[in-house]
Amino acid sequence: MEFDEFVMLCNPRNNEIEVQVEIQNNKVFFKNGWFGLKDFYNIDIGAWAILAYEDSSFMRMSLKNRFHEEVYYPVSDLPIIAKLDRELIRCGLLFSCASNVVILTESDVTSGFLVLILYKC
Question: For the whole model, what pTM was predicted?
């Protein structure tokens, strides 16, 4: 799979949020924009993100809270499009904190537990 530097994540209501992607050692990291999902979807402690790759700049996304319930996707007359300010990113004025995308094993899914090491930004 190939990724552009910026990818749109699209939820089931066709709202889109742009995130910055970085590849390091064949691992995908979401940077700027990723932590905005927490506020956009009102996620308090944690959530499961299911991402389906469509092309290098677009992924379908669904989210479930830690109790495996679908999160509330904002509704409006037109889909919401949240894009990053690339000029601030290019100038180094937009703070970023990378999040590693983890590929789950069968055990992770069937046990219902996933342990991740969290780093403070």
Answer: 0.75
DSSP-derived letter for residue 7 is E
Token code pair at residue 94: 């937009």
Domain boundaries along the sequence of the chain: 6-111
Question: DSSP string of 24-81?
Answer: ETTEEEE-TTTTHHHHHTT-SS-EEEEEEEEETTEEEEEEEETTSPBPPPP--SS--E
What are the pLDDT digits (tens) for 17-45? Answer: 999 998 888 888 888 888 888 888 888 77
* CB crowding 63-98: b at 16 or more within 10 Å, else e: bebeeeeebebeeeeeeeeeebeeeebeeeebebeb
Report the C-alpha gap between 81 and 102 in whole angstroms.
26
Please give the backbone phi and psi of residue 87, each rounded to the nearest 5 degrees, phi first.
-65, -40
Classified as helix, coil or strand, 95 is coil
Q: Which CATH class is domain 6-111?
A: mainly beta
